[in-house]
Amino acid sequence: MHTLATAGDSIWSDMFTFQIPATEKILRTIFVYAAVALLIRVFGRRMLAQLNLSDLVVVLLLSNVVQNAIIGDDNSLSGGLLGALTLVLVDYLFDRVAFMIKGSERFFDGKPVTVVKDGQVDSKKLRRLGIRDGELRTVLHRLGADHASEVESATLRPGGSFDMTLKRDEQDANAGELEAAVRRIEARIDERFTALEARIPLSRE
Prior knowledge:
This protein is α+β, with helices and mostly antiparallel strands.
C-alpha cells in the first residue's frame, strides 16, 4: 500500500510540479513568440501562403523546432498549460496594441503587396516575395482567372492570403445583373415595336 501511495504521489507531482521556474517558462515563451513572429514578418509571407509543398513542410516543422526552446526541461502538465496561457496572452496583447495604436498593424504584420495591377505582373515584387511565376499562375487560376491579363488587381495580404479582382469584362454576372439586362432588352424590344407600329398603320378591313 505504501508503494502504491508513493507511486500515486509521484504521478501527481510529475504532472503538476514545475520542473523549471515559472518565470523562466514565461520568459522562454515570450522570447520564442517574438523571435518566430519576427522571422515570419521578415521572411515568411510566402510561407504563410503555402504556395508549394516546401512551404507546408516549414510550417509543420516550425512548431516542433522551437518546442524545446519553450518547454526547456519541463514536461509537466502545469508547465505546458502555463506556456499555452502565456502564448495566448502575448498574442492578445499584440492584437490590442495593434488595435489601439494607429498604423502599428503595419509594423507588426507588414502591408499588403499588389503583385498584379491592370493585367500587368510586377516581377520585382514577385522576386522580393520569393514567388515564382508558376506559383502566381496557380494562385490566379485557383481564384478564377485563366491569365494575369484578366486581372484588375491581385494582392498578397500580410496573413498570406491573396485577394484578386477580375477586370469588369471578365467578371461573371450575378442574378441581379442578368435580370437587369433582360429588362433592358425587353424595354428596347418594346420601343422598337412601338416605333414600327407608329410607322406602319394597321390596314383597315
